[in-house]
Specification:
The complex is a heterodimer of chains A (313) and B (548). By secondary structure, chain A is α/β, with parallel strands linked by helices. Chain A has helices at 14-27, 68-80, 90-98, 100-125, 144-150, 190-201, 248-257, and strands at 2-7, 31-34, 42-48, 54-58, 61-65, 84-88, 132-135, 155-157, 162-164, 170-174, 211-214, 225-227, 242-244, 261-263, 272-276, 279-283, 294-300, 305-312.
């Protein structure tokens, strides 16, 4: 029996990454799988005010830093939410307000710097252990992330691949999603997703015994319920109106092939487990901003899922 | 000057409308359903209703702070169950939340059913000239059971339609209901006592076949039943004693709060707070306006007497049917101020939307907590299954089947179920108490979580606001729980039902609560043991993974 731990959508949170690396030992899992969306969504400027003083606005609250200790504490706090601290000064901030392309470059640099730090940490922490760690970046992760993961000794990039998990189970993986209102890094139309899935499934020895590690959840599974948005990306009816936003192509692939297990993410509030025919589909959800690593432990038997549980670590 | 740079990424949404949040909180502390219903039952108190409304709202503002704060720290996490289990650990959170959000809601079903018939069916049947049907549906036993089943049917329909559709129904219901209430208030402020007396004589005869002199006979029956509650006045103590009953109406501004959306900053926290707080304030002001309108035209004394006459009969203190053989629905009494039947029907239909826009959420939180517990493997996996239409059939059955049994017990008053109405509030208040304690300790036991939240800088005299608000809200809940349990001022001789009817002397009420908690504990420890035998350590599942 293989015991796997799956977490997803940690969006740049240092705490969640550290917890993820420790999860194998903590839960007694043989395999660690990180779903997509590793990278964060915001850069927080630390605006130098002279001397050791910085002004920081985090979550619309003003903080005034007056010492190195406070600076390190605030950097840790910003990183724990998955945001990227950026030490700057008022002149540069004025310049950045005028030049959005410079902001994009800063973002890219900060994102990739942290991914590199994470890979270094994984290589160091898992050195000497036989823990397997698989990763497939998600629709929010820029292409350059792949190169950094690929260079890691301990974290294996599995995007678009068929990966043997044990002698009885193979896994396909993809971080690509169907279209979103944000036009993110890795999204495409349903017919293109269908081709992507079929290309991987056709290489499986036994699709019914496989794991589909697909970032986006299947359509209308309850794992894909997200707040309905208006044209200005504002939740309608105060977020009370939830609509399915998952992939129809994935749902069709699951219904047709009936794999053993589907591992999904993408919709942070879609935490849950559901069966589509014989396939157990799980979205552990995400609370990365709170530094809580949501995940799932799944025990794979020869031809079945022996057991599973959603975790909150 | 920029203080945050964001990039295009999934979920980067803008803030939702405070007004929308207001609507759902406004419907949760529903003046026309919960309000009119509980006010009418409070005929025997000595504290004034207007000061009671104001004081209760002042306490409940702290509940709003507690919930808005918890949402800011752990948004979209599923509410009380998740907050308590994550802050206290599994056992307490499960037992309190499962009882509060699941089992207790079974008891709410016949109460919703009672409101369906009293607020919607009885007046409309009367207005359409179906006298016998109107009087029958208002009666005891089978009619109440039938209306409870109709309520369950409606709730099942809402779950089948989904929240997307129902959220829109609620919004339309808000506008229709507000128009109806506005007309009712205008009628109350433009009519006169003489007009009301004449209107009641004529219309109640037409609606329900009452005898001439129904007004005075009702007043007499009410006075004999002990009608006493004043509109204003009463000592602070006497006013406080009305609150454990009044909160049946207004303890719920947080009902749908966990759905309001992700909180990314202090302004979103304020948005959540504002939605709930304005709903509480607006409802309180409307309640006061309604009372003043009643006092002006219907007459406060008559209003209390009519309620006393009805509930004295409905609660079984007399078998004599009151002169007005139905619940004295204040909206119906207000439309008696006009003799135009079409206007009456239109206003009654508009007022009915308060029930339809509200009742659909009966099992909303229950379904959510059942799902959360199933995902934690503390209920069978099938509890969270969806059918092909996306309907959570099994979770619905977990709610509906016991609710049918409880509705029958309540409708036919078996095992004293009619006496435990307030236990429906008590069960949830105990769970809120757990949440308030969780809020108090959160900044100290989950420091990193708290410090990384949008409320980290909100302090009162250096103490976290969430802790201060939690202490006040927990104190208020503690007062309610002591009053409910010991009913000390009225029950000193050990006689009678007390002010609230659910003291420890009511074995049915205590029995119901104890049974609920025992079942919850059995489920928790039973499943925990089962999972352990399957190799899953439930303590570890909810424990924090070490970072180093």
């Amino acid at each position: 029996m293989t015991s796997l731990f799956f977490a997803t959508d940690i969006h740049g949170s240092d705490i969640c990454w550290s917890k993820f690396l420790n999860a194998g030992k903590f839960y007694g899992a043989d395999v660690l799988i990180l779903g997509g969306d590793m990278t964060g969504k915001a850069v927080v400027p630390f605006i130098h005010q002279g001397g050791k003083n910085y002004q920081v606005t985090l979550l619309e609250q003003e903080f005034y830093i007056t010492s190195d200790e406070e600076l390190q504490d605030m950097i840790k706090r910003v990183r724990s939410r998955g945001y990227y601290p950026y030490l700057t000064n008022p002149d540069e901030i004025r310049e950045l307000d005028q030049k959005p392309e410079r902001v994009s470059q800063i973002f890219r640099d900060e994102v990739l710097k942290v991914v590199q730090q994470w890979m270094d940490l994984a290589d160091k922490k898992l050195d000497g252990s036989d823990m397997k760690v698989y990763c497939s970046p998600g629709n929010d992760d820029m292409d350059e992330v792949d190169e950094i993961v690929r260079a890691s000794r301990r974290v294996l990039l599995v995007e678009g691949q068929v990966t043997p998990l044990d002698p009885n189970h193979e896994m396909i993986a993809s971080g690509w999603s169907n279209r979103t209102p944000w036009n993110t890094e890795r999204e495409e139309d349903e017919d293109q997703l269908k081709v992507r899935y079929e290309a991987m499934i056709s290489r499986l020895k036994d699709p019914r015994n496989a794991v589909f590690n697909i970032h986006v959840p299947p359509y209308k599974s309850g794992l894909d319920d997200a707040p309905e948005l208006d044209k200005d990306l504002r939740p309608v009816l105060a977020g009370n109106s939830m609509i399915p936003v998952g992939s129809k192509a994935l749902r069709a692939a699951i219904e047709k092939n009936q794999p053993l297990l589907g591992l999904h993410g993408h919709i942070h509030e879609g935490r849950g487990a559901i069966r589509i025919g014989k396939t157990l589909c799980i979205n552990p959800g995400s609370m990365y901003e709170q530094g809580t690593l949501l995940g799932t432990i799944v025990k794979l038997g020869k031809d079945k899922v022996e057991n599973y549980v959603l975790t909150s670590g | 000057m920029s203080n945050l740079f964001v990039r295009k990424a999934t979920g980067m949404v803008r803030s939702w409308s405070v007004f929308d949040a207001f609507i759902y909180a406004f419907f949760s502390i529903n003046l026309v359903t919960l309000g009119f219903y509980s006010f009418s039952q409070m005929y025997y108190f000595s504290g004034g209703m207007i000061p009671a409304l104001i004081i209760s709202a002042a306490f409940i503002i702290f509940e709003v702070i507690v919930y808005a704060s918890l949402i800011a720290v752990m948004p979209r996490s599923g509410g009380d169950y998740v907050w308590q289990t994550r802050i206290f650990g599994g056992g307490i959170g499960f037992i309190l939340a499962i009882t509060g959000w699941w089992f207790t809601l079974w008891l709410w079903t016949p109460i919703y059913g009672d409101m369906l018939r009293q607020i919607v069916l009885t007046p409309l049947l009367g207005a359409f000239g179906l006298q016998q049907a109107a009087v029958w549906i208002a009666g005891q036993g089978t009619p109440l059971f039938v209306c409870s089943l109709l309520t369950l049917l409606f709730v099942a329909l809402v779950i089948f339609l989904g929240m997307k559709t129902y959220a829109r129904i609620q919004k339309y219901s808000f506008y229709a209901g507000m128009l109806g209430l506005l007309i009712v208030i205008v009628l109350l402020f433009t009519g006169s006592p003489d007009q009301f007396r004449a209107g009641m004589e004529a219309n109640s005869a037409a609606y329900f076949g009452t005898q001439a002199g129904v007004h005075d006979a009702t007043a007499e029956a009410g006075a004999a039943a002990g009608a006493s509650t004043p509109l204003t006045g009463g000592s602070f103590l006497l006013i406080m004693l009305t609150l454990p009953y009044l909160v049946f109406f207004n303890l719920w501004p947080n009902w749908g709060a966990t759905l309001y959306g992700e909180v990314r900053g202090a302004s979103d926290y304020k948005r959540n707070f504002s939605g709930m707080a304005w709903a509480l304030i607006a409802t309180t002001l409307l309640g006061i306006l309604f009372f003043l309108g009643v006092n002006r035209t219907i007459g406060w004394d008559f209003y209390v007497q009519a309620n006393a006459a009805w509930w004295n009969y409905a609660w079984g203190y007399t078998t004599e049917v009151p002169p007005l053989p139905v619940w004295p629905n204040p909206a119906m009494l207000a439309v008696f101020l006009t003799n135009n039947r079409l206007i009456q029907i239109v206003v009654l239909l508009l007022m009915s939307t308060w029930w339809f826009g509200w009742a659909g959420t009966l099992f909303l939180s229950s379904t959510r907590v059942i799902f959360a517990a199933a995902f934690d493997r503390l209920l069978p996996e099938s509890a969270a299954e969806l059918n092909k239409n996306g309907t959570p059939v099994n979770a619905m059955l977990y709610m509906v089947l016991p609710a049918i049994l409880i509705s029958a017990l309540y409708a036919y008053n078996m095992l004293g179920f009619r006496t435990i109405t307030l236990a429906a509030t008590q069960g949830i208040a105990i769970m809120y108490f757990g949440t308030a304690i969780a809020a108090i300790v959160l900044p100290y036991t989950k420091k990193e979580l708290y410090n990384a939240s949008p409320i980290a800088q909100m302090k009162v005299a250096g103490i976290p606001l969430i802790t201060v608000a939690g202490v006040i809200f927990a104190g208020f809940l503690g007062f309610l729980l002591v009053e409910w349990m010991f009913d000390p001022w009225l029950n000193t001789g050990g006689e009678g039902a007390g002010l609230y009817g659910i003291s420890f002397k009511n074995i049915y009420s205590i029995g119901f609560l104890v049974l609920c908690y025992a079942v919850a504990a059995t489920i928790y420890y039973g499943f925990k043991a089962r999972r352990r035998s399957e190799g899953i350590d439930m303590n570890k599942v909810q424990a924090e993974i070490p970072v180093e």
